[in-house]
Amino acid sequence: MKILFLTSVAIITPMPAESRRLFVDTLGLPLKADENDDYYYSQDIAGSKHFGVWPLSKAAEACFSTSAWPSNRPIPHASFEFEVADKQSVASAALELQSMGYALLHDVHTEPWGQTIVRLQTSEGAIVGISHAPSLHEGGKIG
What is the pTM of this model? Predict the structure, then answer.
């Protein structure tokens, strides 16, 4: 697989309001709310394409289609997404990861905003995504 760049970094938190207090109120980051949920993010922080404060319940929904994180998995505290060239490269990466013994958190799928992604969890508990967001390849930003 050929990783092009780091797409996104997110803190995963069971206490979104407390995390937002640190990142928005204390650090002064220009995070804005996603209009559909409690996810706060910015694409306007120098050196970062996308930084987010991701509620644990939303991470669970993205990975398992339920708001509760499974008790048999480590609770994640961070998420990193890496960009590849196209949708087919996401599917190829998924097969490559599986062939190397990695268990995927979910199959390759396309999010409503057009990002195609597959995710796994590291032994430390972090969520790692391999993705293709067309807007990043058109000079735009995901969001």
Answer: 0.87
Q: Which residues contact 14 (CB under 8 A, 6 or more apart)?
A: 55, 56, 57, 75
Whether domain 5-137 has CATH 3.40.5.50: the reply is no
Q: Judge contact between 90 and 108, C-beta under 8 A.
A: yes
Question: Encoding tokens for residue 3?
Answer: 């990783």
Amino acid at 121: Q
The radius of gyration computed from the CA coordinates of the chain, to the nearest angstrom, equals 15
Render pLDDT for 27-36 as a digit per residue (tens, 0 to 9).
Answer: 999 999 977 7
Q: What would the two tokens of residue 121 be? A: 């969890």
Distance, in Å, from the CA atom of 7 to the CA atom of 80, rounded to the nearest integer, reads 8
d(CA 95, CA 118) in angstroms, rounded, equals 10
Domain boundaries, the chain: 5-137
Q: What is the mean pLDDT of residues 31-48?
A: 88
